[in-house]
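Dear H.,

Thanks for agreeing to be a second pair of eyes. The structure we're designing against is below in token form, covering all 611 positions.
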């Protein structure tokens, strides 16, 4: 039997204070221990404290008390033009204990223009002789009777006849910017036309973003970036609300243009212009929000599938990441970059990956300069299943059959969610030994692969339920330092009762995440970690046991609610005595946790007794 070395002394009577080498799921690899390390210097700043217990504004009266704190502490938001929607959403998120929001953003888009300088609609990358129509959004942008593109071109040529605009890019946002977005005010400006707001940015096509602003000495080719902005600055509103509710906001970086030949890849031909726009926006953020605690960092929105690339240096999306992330380090030092890649574990498809291959991809991604990697757990899309090693020959969940058909977990997938997070936690620990600090979070998908229930703007995908979400938290388990979810709008708010309402009604149901054999003082037993475990009854069972064993932890056990470094906030520990001599060797012990009022956890945890 594999024993775990545990330094115990008087200090354990007051709380766990000694260093524990924890082996995960029976693994003997120390790289699996302490998977969620304490936040690095870039991410360890606490969330802002709510400024008041209650406040009133034109949207109504809002309460800043967190009444029903749940295990999920961060959510994605869709941009909205209604400031009252922001307020209602952040209040609801905060009530469930949320301290982080990640907002979706917009993409930089290279566009053709016609003879009059009108920006044309995007093309899909296919060759066609048909000229696309003008984009009505940018047709509004007019200066002195000329399109904004033509006005910029004429001013450049007035400075030097050899100047020209070689490419036009557009970027849509609901934000507004301050003067920090301009590098060369003699050629760049804010343009307001009948309430529509635009920003005209000019940059050399070589991506240098030349700070000399010398447009006269020699003729050069320039890129025009035409930004369609919001009437109000949504980010200012979000950060103000973040200060109110104690929530950190991660606004999205500009999304890279996609490769027309393969839309899942970022197009490296546009790195120079992308980094120029990123630099300008982040310079403005730094000027206006650099000291705001509610600005938690920035979100890299271009999705990437984690895999073991033969040569990561040749991966287009990683190249674009590295260039863009370098700008973040320069312009917003101390603010972390968060990225949420996806995993595909399906055996029947090409280019899917085993847990070990995903761990290798995790390392390559970390080296692009990100500080927080929150891999999508894959259950909502059906790309990964929620199952334990001893379940692999069971039929898949009925809700996964639209994706993988009638099959067992072992037939459908290379591994389960827990297998992937465990391997990535080992990779994170190995990176730390190399001096590369990165946080591992879990992004649990709050939807089902398909549904007949329309859920807002989410197409055929429908919301899931709280038991499934609890199960996702359990399976991500002890390997991550935070759990966040895609996404609040609309999966947590649609239906009746909505998922957020289900959580509010059942927020303190036990959610175990791990069980391990432990000695405590002179007794042997089982230590269980998870959420809301105080006064719980623990039921142990295994194949061949006629009557499950029930142990009341409040009577014969031990409970410690002290936060555990490197694990999500809210995780606590209980311990119960177990006579291991009566437990057969090489069995998976099923560990169920029931609250004092009789509510059983949605998912048990398993301990593999290898003794």
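And this is the sequence the design step returned. I haven't edited it by hand at all.
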């Amino acid at each position: 039997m594999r024993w775990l070395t545990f330094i115990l002394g008087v200090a354990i009577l007051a709380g766990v204070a000694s260093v524990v080498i924890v082996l995960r799921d029976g693994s003997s690899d120390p790289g699996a221990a302490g998977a969620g390390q304490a936040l690095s210097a870039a991410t360890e700043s606490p969330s802002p404290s709510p400024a008041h217990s209650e406040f009133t504004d034109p949207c109504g009266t809002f309460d800043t008390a967190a009444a029903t704190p749940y295990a999920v502490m961060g959510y994605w938001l869709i941009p909205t033009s209604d400031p009252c929607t922001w307020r209602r959403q952040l209040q609801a998120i905060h009530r469930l204990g949320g301290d982080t929001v990640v907002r979706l953003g917009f993409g930089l888009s290279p566009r053709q223009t016609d003879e009059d300088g009108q920006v044309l609609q995007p093309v899909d990358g296919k060759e066609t002789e048909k000229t696309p129509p003008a984009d009505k959004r940018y047709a509004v942008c007019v200066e002195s009777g000329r399109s904004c593109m033509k006005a910029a071109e004429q001013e450049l040529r007035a400075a030097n006849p050899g100047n020209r605009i070689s490419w036009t890019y557009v970027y849509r946002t609901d934000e507004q910017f301050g003067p920090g977005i301009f590098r060369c005010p003699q050629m760049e400006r804010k343009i307001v036309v009948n309430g529509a707001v635009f920003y005209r940015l000019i940059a050399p096509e070589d991506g240098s973003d030349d700070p000399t602003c010398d447009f006269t000495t020699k003729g050069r080719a320039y890129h025009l970036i035409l930004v369609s902005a919001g009437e109000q600055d949504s980010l200012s509103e979000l950060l103000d609300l973040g200060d109110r509710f104690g929530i950190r906001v991660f606004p999205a970086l500009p999304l890279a243009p996609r490769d027309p030949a393969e839309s899942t890849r970022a197009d490296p031909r546009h790195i120079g212009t992308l980094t120029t726009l990123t630099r300008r926006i982040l310079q403005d953020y730094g000027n206006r929000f650099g000291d705001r605690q509610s600005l938690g960092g920035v979100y890299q929105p271009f999705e990437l599938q984690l895999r073991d690339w033969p040569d990561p240096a040749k991966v287009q999306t990683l190249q674009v990441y590295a260039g863009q992330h370098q700008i973040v380090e320069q312009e917003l030092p101390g603010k972390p970059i968060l990225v949420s890649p996806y995993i595909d574990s399906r055996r029947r498809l090409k280019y899917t990956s085993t847990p070990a291959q995903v761990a290798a991809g995790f390392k390559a991604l970390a080296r692009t300069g990100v500080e927080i990697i929150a891999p999508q757990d894959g259950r909502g899309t059906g790309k990964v299943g929620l199952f334990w090693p001893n379940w692999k020959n069971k039929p898949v969940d009925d809700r996964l059959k639209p994706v993988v058909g009638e099959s067992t977990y072992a037939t459908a997938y290379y591994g389960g969610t827990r297998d992937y997070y465990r391997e990535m936690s080992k990779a994170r620990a190995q990176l730390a030994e190399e001096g590369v600090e990165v946080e591992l979070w879990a992004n649990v998908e709050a939807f089902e692969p398909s549904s007949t229930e329309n859920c807002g703007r989410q197409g055929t995908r429908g919301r899931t339920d709280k038991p499934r979400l609890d199960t996702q938290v359990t399976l991500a388990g002890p390997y991550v330092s935070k759990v966040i979810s895609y996404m609040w709008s609309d999966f947590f708010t649609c239906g009746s009762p909505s998922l957020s309402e289900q959580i509010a009604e059942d927020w303190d149901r036990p959610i175990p995440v791990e069980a391990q054999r432990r000695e405590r003082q002179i007794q042997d037993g089982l230590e269980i970690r998870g959420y809301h475990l105080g006064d719980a009854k623990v039921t142990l069972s295994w194949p061949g046991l006629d009557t499950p064993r029930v142990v009341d932890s409040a009577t014969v056990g031990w409970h410690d609610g002290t936060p555990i470094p490197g694990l999500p906030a809210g995780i606590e520990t209980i311990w119960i005595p177990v006579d291991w001599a009566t437990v057969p060797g090489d069995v998976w012990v099923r560990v169920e946790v029931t609250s004092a009022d009789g509510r059983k956890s949605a998912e048990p945890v398993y301990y593999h007794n290898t003794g």
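Two observations from my side: The longest helix spans residues 271-289. Residues 1-44 have pLDDT under 50 and may be disordered.

Warmly,
E.
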